[in-house]
Amino acid sequence: MSYEKDGIKQIEVEELKELLKSNGEDKVFIDVREPEEYEAAHIPGVPLLPMNNIPFFLEGFKKDKEYVFICRSGNRSQNVSRYLKENGIEKVVNFDGGMLSWDGEKAAGPEHQIKDVNELKEWNK
């Protein structure tokens, strides 16, 4: 069941699983951890865009999309969500509990890292 914390929508494991299954075109899932964390274990199909790169990618985020951010515990993804909201991207969601609480399928290795703004724009389509 989702709830709000500091003005940011929070979701937990079961809701994230449902969102990933439905994967509507209006939602974009992004892992904001560091590359080595992502390569150790991540949710299959979710790309990596490390938190410290987010400010350089602002123009690539679309106001009509909903962004679901994932990190290790839910703290970094909460900060990313707040930052984007402060910069005009209203539809942000934090996966509270992060990968520490994820009990679904995991993949290892460098599946996909978003490396530039144009790639983020393509991912948003």
From TrEMBL:
Which segments constitute the Rhodanese domain?
Answer: 23-108
Look up the domain of life of the source: Bacteria
State the signal peptide span: none
Q: Which InterPro entries match?
A: GlpE_sulfurtransferase, Rhodanese-like_dom, Rhodanese-like_dom_sf
Q: Name one Pfam family in it.
A: Rhodanese
Q: Which species does the entry assign this protein to?
A: Evansella vedderi
Coiled-coil annotation reads none
Q: Which PROSITE patterns match?
A: RHODANESE_3
* Name of the protein: Rhodanese-related sulfurtransferase
